[in-house]
Amino acid sequence: MLVSGIVSALLTVVAWQNRSIPIIRPFLFLMVAETVWIFGDLIQMMVQSLPFVLLINIVEYLGIMTVPIAWLFLVLVYTGRGHYLTRRTVPLFFIIPGIVWLMVLTNPLHYLYYTSISPQLIDGVTIWIYKHGPLFWLHITYCYLLGLTALILAAGRLFGPTELYRRQTLLLAVAACFPIIFNMAYVFRIMPFPEYDLTPIAFLASSLLIAIGILRYQLFSAVPVAYSRVFFMSGDGVFVADAQNRVLDLNPAAERIAGIRSCDAIGQPVGQVVPELAGSAEALIRDVPCRFEIRREREGAFRYFDVLVTPMDEKIEVSGGYICLLRDITARKIAELALAEANRKIGLLTSITRHDITNKIVAVHSYLELSRDLATNPQQIEYLAKQEQALAAISEQIAFTHEYQQLGTEAPAWQDLGTLVLSVRKEVDLGSVVLENTAGPWEILADPMLGKVFSNLCDNAVKYGGNRLTGIRISSRQAGNELEIMVEDDGAGIAPEDRAHLFERGYGKHTGLGLFLSREILAITGIAIRETSEPGQGARFEIRVPTGKFRTTGDRKS
Questions:
Q1: Can you tell me the distance from the alpha carbon of 458 to that of 512, in angstroms, rounded to the nearest whole number?
Q2: SS3 call for 545
Q3: Element (H, E) at 62
Q4: Dist. CA 205–CA 364, nearest whole Å
Q5: CATH of domain 413-555
């Protein structure tokens, strides 16, 4: 018993040093109560004076009455139910113990708690024999109910998904069982030594198990999160529904979104609780996760929600159901709409400006033609030719702004590589140049302007390939996790000094915008392009498509 008391006292010191941790506080409460109980029993075995024994018993009972309450508090905090312990609720647990302690204090006046107390010498040790009265049984019933409640709450964690937490819970449950079993054996006189209360000795085994839990399984430092607490505290609305689209449960955030109490929503169709989800009934009951957005009007204001639907796991009791998560994205959506409106206005202004500039260019071009007929001086004719070249460059740049404006305005889409290569014949005047297509059965996830990349590359080959150019070949091969697409020609090739600047805006013999635009189109989905030819062997452009951005046509999904 002395060893048990010392271990409990040491755990009390350890708990006091870590009292800033929320779960340590009820543990400290428990260790103090156990220590008082153990040393109270120990002192009683060392004295023979009844008045002194009664005094020690009164002090000891403060610990005896507190132990089951502290165990319950510990389990409540451990299982994530610590929010039930408030300044209002905690004193309620001590009403019956407070009454009991007064009865123990005044027992010589009524003998309702102990009917008699007498010493008995057993193996040279003085054991005080307590005969229990009716109030004792009231108190012991209350203590056992608290202990049973704590065990039931802890048992719920034995089937959790994490092995560490399951072992922690098992240790706690076993540590709680030892004192309860030994105490019941003493109360109901069913042990080989019925006169001995071995509950303090059981605290030694209990304390050792807790020590093992602290040292081996991070007990109290790695505390499991209560999933129910997360469910109710989440700021996102959560609806749990069955295969018939009926609401099984919802959290407070979902109640606020739907504007309905849970008691009125449970059992109702999801589309009735949130009418905006009614049009997505098929998506809700699919066996694969899906995501979409809804707009909900409440009190004259619109709120936007990102909806994530996740099917229930097969292990869950309600098979065929799903969890519907609604996240408020109103702020983001308002910003997106404002940005879209700003882009629309900028696009409209750009379109009008481009149209007006084009008209002015046509007018200037007409005046230049008239001026050419009147010019007689060779220097004048030269200047007019340079003005014509400048106007042509301006026209090309205006055309480029129209193409660049379309970049990224639509979501990336899967595009058939073979079809894109075939479209080059319509976009580019190849003349006698042969276009060889061995691109293979691939689909590329890219901006809808992807076809422009191949058109630009082939057009450049025709323009700058010179007399040597006879053919252009577009091929592909899978290299590890990437897809390589090669666009090669047998023309004049690219000068070594030009390679480092090929994809820079404005670099080139004309506007220098074609390759720059091609790089920008590909970069939207993380596709890279580079020039890898050898001097004098034509041009060779290598397009590298990362994993996840390509698939075979056979993998196409609906």
A1: 15
A2: strand
A3: helix 50-78
A4: 101
A5: 3.30.565.10
Picking from 226, 224, 209, 223, the residue whose alpha carbon sits closest to that of residue 21 is 223
DSSP class of 83: G
The single-letter code of the amino acid at 94 is: F
Backbone φ, ψ for residue 294 (5° rounding): -130, 160
- Domains 234-328 and 413-555 equal at CATH topology level: no
Q: Which of 439, 412, 413 is nearest to 424 (CA)?
A: 439
Buried b (16+ CB within 10 A) or exposed e, 440-458: bebbbbbbbbbbbbbbbbb
In the structure encoding, which two tokens stand for residue 34, read together? 């156990």
Check residue 106 and report its DSSP letter. Answer: T
The pLDDT of residue 226 is: 54
Q: Give me the amino acid identity at 289.
A: P
Q: Quick one: pLDDT at residue 557?
A: 46
Which phi and psi (to 5°) does residue 60 adopt? -60, -35
List the alpha helices (DSSP H) in 156-300.
163-187, 199-216, 227-233, 252-258, 262-265, 270-273, 281-284
Distance CA 177, CA 199 (A): 11
The CATH code of the domain at 234-328 is 3.30.450.20
pLDDT value of position 318: 45
- CATH number (1.20.1070, 1.10.3470, 2.30.110, 3.30.70) of 2-216 reads 1.20.1070
Amino acid code (one letter) for 18: N
Place of tokens 């819970």: 169
Contact 529, 522 (CB under 8 A): yes
Cα 139 from Cα 104, distance rounded (Å): 11
Express each pLDDT in 12-27 by its tens digit.
888 888 887 777 888 8
State how far the Cα of 231 lies from the Cα of 283, in Å rounded to an integer.
23
SS3 488: strand
Question: Of 556, 485, 489, 557, which Cα lies nearest the Cα of 527?
Answer: 485
Q: Enumerate the domain spans of the chain.
A: 2-216, 234-328, 335-406, 413-555
Residue 508 and residue 455: Cα distance in Å, rounded?
A: 17
pLDDT lower than 70: segments of the chain: 159-162, 164-165, 191-195, 215, 217-229, 279-287, 313-320, 400, 402-409, 506-512, 554-558
Q: Comparing C-alpha atoms, which of 263, 227, 228, 246 is closest to residue 324?
A: 246
Q: How far is residue 444's CA from residue 1's CA, in Å, rounded to a whole number?
A: 76
Residue length of the chain? 558
Instruction: Report d(CA 454, CA 48) in Å as an integer.
Output: 104
CA distance 191 to 448: 84
Whole-model pTM: value is 0.48
Buried b (16+ CB within 10 A) or exposed e, 240-251: bbbeebbbeebb
